[in-house]
Fold this protein.
Amino acid sequence: MFFSTTTSLLPILTLLLAPPTTAHFTLDWPTARGFDDAQATSFPCGGFNNVKTPRTDFPLSGGPLQLNMHHPRTRVAVYLALGNDPGSSFNYVLLPQLTQTGLGDFCLGHVNLPSGVNVTAGTNATIQVVTNGDPDGGLYQCADVTFTNAALSESHCNNNTNVKVVTENMQGNPNASASGTGTTSGSPSPSPSNAAAHVTAAGWLLGAVGAAGMALL
């Protein structure tokens, strides 16, 4: 039986020539509401507008955010909304904008509540992570949490070996890198020493941050 070479190779060529698909970033801990790369640009939570239960317990004393980055250079900021179903009211800045480089696991280390925020054990809230990894706008992911007095029972803070935070001056030129990058395995409990992003925000932050975090871009 004779087979056409062109016909038999067509499925293989189609697969090889298909454009690769990859997420811009994922929020791995606390547990995200969900992820859909096609909707990641949808404010406020990447197309997932319903609260996810059960919520993740998050320490009142602070804890990590575990991300996985799929762009070589990304600006990241983190916001907080209080309430059982806060919608788009992300009125508190947990981490001002910073610039991260490298691919893979990236731990935003010991993230603390802003001073003066009236939060107690049992308070429900939603954490929003925003990045600028899309040319058409921001990328959004959210995690629904309940604040607790309990400490974390396991580590949720890993950094790939090539991941770091860079500080920039007002012209956007890198002038330093953050310490604390590590491997993706064997990380101890979250602390500033093993958190790549536990740094003070640099002077290039883009103005005042609005309630929706739109000043990130």
User: Anything to note?
Assistant: Residues 1-21, 169-217 have pLDDT under 50 and may be disordered. The first helix runs from residue 5 to 17. Residues 20-216 form a domain with the Immunoglobulin-like fold (CATH 2.60.40.10).
